[in-house]
Amino acid sequence: MGNRGFFLENLKNQNYTEAFKQTSSNWCFSFAPGRIEFLGNHLDYNGGTVLGMAVNAGIYCLGVPQDDTSVSLFSENFEDSAWDGDLQQIEPQNGKYSWTNYCLGVLVELKKRGLAPTKGFRLIFTSDLPASVGLSSSAALELATAHTLLQLSGHSLSKEDMVKVCRRAENDFVGMPCGILDQGTSAFGKADHLVCIECERENYYNLPLPPTTEVWVFNTRIKHDLVDSLYSTRHQECKDVFESIKEIHPARNFLCDCKMDDLSTTVLPENLRKRAIHVIKEQERVTSFCQGIENDSHLSDLGQLLTQSHESSSQNFENSCEELDFLVEKLNKHPSVLGARLTGGGFGGAVMAWVKKNFTHLDAEVIQGAYQDHFGQKIDSFHFKASDGARKECLLSK
């Protein structure tokens, strides 16, 4: 589905098109891609450096201004959950309307900065992003909302500030203690590149993907809902272990700044020690991957870093599951797979495979068949390209 096509399929007649242009002259349109966490599992809120990839699928938002203060939110993904409210009375929603909190949180943050629309609006969302796969549809929803609301209000923000607004919306309004990986990757995506984010300093740059490689994602079909999962528990465990280390090593500023030697001088419960090992070694793997790309290292060596990342996620961070481990094991046995690992928060969701270009749909079907034979359930696979980041769009081609 193209960025404009789903709104304009019936605009074939020139007279109809001209009428549409007049009717929609003050409408606006935005797109934000989903993202794959390429490497750096749970490092963003620990002050580390992470690698993400914006994908060629995402969320599209049409904004229509109103003459009063009414607000209406509708998504094709939640057709029975259209929400109506008032610009002056924005509060968190529950139940089937919970999806709107990602949009309303952005609105609240923009209002704090004097950048929100002063009149009402309708936002209409559609998506070609697979659900419950760990591709961060929530961040895409936030960024698509932000771009659209800023067009409606006549204001603008830098990409850096856009990320801050959307992250704050998710932290404070939604109640999800995420870092900036999701919003940062969706905002700073670039075709054929990864997004490298130095989370503590909030610096962003792009890293070229080797042109002979591609990315596939395999969905376990296990519900991926971070708000209701153990994500918050892991977040707190990382906070606890850092506080213990900092008492002994006060010069450390965040967990990713710590070294393995720090653990030998800090008394920790076994679960916190394992969380620390994962975070510290995962940061080393991200650094090694970035250096390897810059030094044109052998792809198989770089791929091993992804495989090691999953092993650590499974054994030390304990955010994997039997289904994820099975897929990673099967994929890593394939000669065209450079490395495979869970992607995103874990506890379900999906596995990412970094592959050579000779990995085909038939190869993916073999992996899917093995999963079905073992677990008795069909799963999906998706082939993604690294894409450009969130942006406003034109409703009609010039």
3D architecture notes:
The longest helix is centred in the last third of the chain and has 25 residues, at 270-294. The chain has 12 helices and 12 strands. Helix 4 packs across helix 5 and helix 11 packs antiparallel against helix 12. A hairpin with a 4-residue loop joins strand 6 (193-198) and strand 7. The strands form 2 sheets. Strands 1, 2, 3, 4, 5, 6, 7 and 12 form an 8-stranded mixed sheet that branches. Strands 9-10-8-11 form a 4-stranded antiparallel sheet. It has 398 residues and is α+β, with helices and mostly antiparallel strands. It is globular and about 60 Å long. The protein has a domain at 5-9 and 23-208: Ribosomal Protein S5, domain 2.
Short description:
Helix content is 40%, strand content 22%. It has helices spanning 5-8, 14-23, 101-112, 137-153, 159-174, 181-188, 231-248, 260-264, 270-294, 299-317, 322-332, 361-375; strands spanning 28-39, 49-65, 70-75, 83-86, 121-127, 193-198, 203-208, 213-219, 337-343, 350-356, 380-384, 391-393. Strands 1, 2, 3, 4, 5, 6, 7 and 12 form an eight-stranded mixed β-sheet that branches. Strands 9-10-8-11 form a four-stranded antiparallel β-sheet.
